[in-house]
Amino acid sequence: MDDQANNDAPQEQPAEAKTVETLSSRRREERRYRFDSPKPPPKRLFRRPQLPQLPAIPWWREALLGLFLLTAVTAFLNPFATLSAALGHPGQPARPLAFALADESPAGYCIAGGFQDWDGSSTPLLDDGTSGDAVAGDGIYARTFTLAEPGRALWRVLACGDWNTAVPQENGWVLTTDPNQPITFTFNPALAEDGFWPDAYAITIDDPLPNAVFVVGSFQARPWDSGDGRTQMKRTSDRQFELVYRVPQPGTYDAYVALPDRSEGVGADGRSVQPLPLQFTTQRAGETVLFQYDAQTNRIAIFSGIPWLLSWLGFAGGAYLLGGIVLLGTLVMAVLVGYRRALAWPAWQHTTGCPNCQQPTLRRVNRTKKDYVLNLLAIPIRRYQCPACGWTGRRIKR
Q1: Which of 286, 287, 290 is nearest to 278 (CA)?
Q2: Which residue among 75, 148, 195, 236 sits deepest, i.e. has the most Cβ atoms within 10 Å of its Cβ?
């Protein structure tokens, strides 16, 4: 009985037999799926081809193009002239000023001159917004006078009643051209230091400017010659003048701004019939010196010791030469970047087919003159025609 029961019980297969049977089943399943016919996709007349994967344009080309463009714009704007003045050594008065006018005067400020009998206390400058003063209470004083006779009139500004504080040290001047001409004097008693002299105050006079002004001094071949055309100042804006001059020999020199063929001028103490010169020093032969005259405030400045490279860039055309070279490099780099982008633009590739009907196969046709020009620029342009819709256009054949 026990033997019969053992014969009827299912015999357990060996592990190797199970493994063989599992592998066989998997192969049958794979074979069945491999040879099954999938459902075909819906038919289309033309199928848009997949665009090629083109190499990315290196980022440094665009960065270098931007740097070139920024450098070219900076060079043509020429900030080196301003930088030269900032790094140069400002001139100082050849002799110390007799006194410094106080920023504030309890008695106020007065003007005295031949047009009011040189009375130092009867004609105060105003800060109330009237009689030529622009803004009330701003600390800037002004007054308008009518000068009866055309020509030269003399004046000085002082703390009312105190001739020991009068500026400039010698009489100032004003030139009029018409009878009964109104002239406004504006006095600012407090200024920030910027290399210009007078460094503590500014006196603005709205008389007409002369046609030309000159820098005169001991540095000239003929010292103090107010008719030397080489030292005539160039007008840079409405009431701003500038002269860039190469002093032949190193040394210490005096200079101020003068009217042509007249004794009047502008020095370290402002407008004066006997201007106080500014003194400057050069260290090398042919050193560039910058002279500036602000006719709005009647102040002058002289800057020497300017580094050679800055003077070349700022005043000798170096900035424009540098800008031209960099601009040429900018154009070359722009062509290279544009060329790379044109070659890498997916929609311009031959493999994109027809843009109208998506026909993938195009027929080559004759090129035009413009196509040949683009080929001369190394852009491989070809002209194609769509056999389905007749579209004709350019494509890049790589």
Answers
A1: 290
A2: 75
Sort residue 15 into left (φ over 0), alpha (ψ -120 to 50) or beta: alpha
Cα–Cα dist 310/314, whole Å:
6
pTM over cut 0.85: no
How far apart, in whole angstroms, are the C-alpha atoms of residue 150 and residue 311? 43
DSSP summary character for residue 162? -
For CA atoms 23, 25, 29, 32, the dihedral sign is: positive
For the domain made up of 109-205, the CATH class stated in words is mainly beta
Q: What is the pLDDT of residues 264-318, one digit of tens each?
A: 999 999 999 999 999 999 999 999 999 999 999 999 999 999 999 888 988 888 8
Please state, in angstroms and rounded to a whole number, the distance separating the CA atoms of residues 323 and 308. 18
Cis omega (within 30 of 0) for bond into 168: yes
| Residue ranges per structural domain of the chain | 85-96+209-318, 109-205, 320-396
Total Cβ atoms within 10 A of residue 41: 7
Q: What is the CATH number of domain 85-96+209-318?
A: 2.60.40.10
Q: How far apart are CA 370 and CA 366, in angstroms?
A: 12
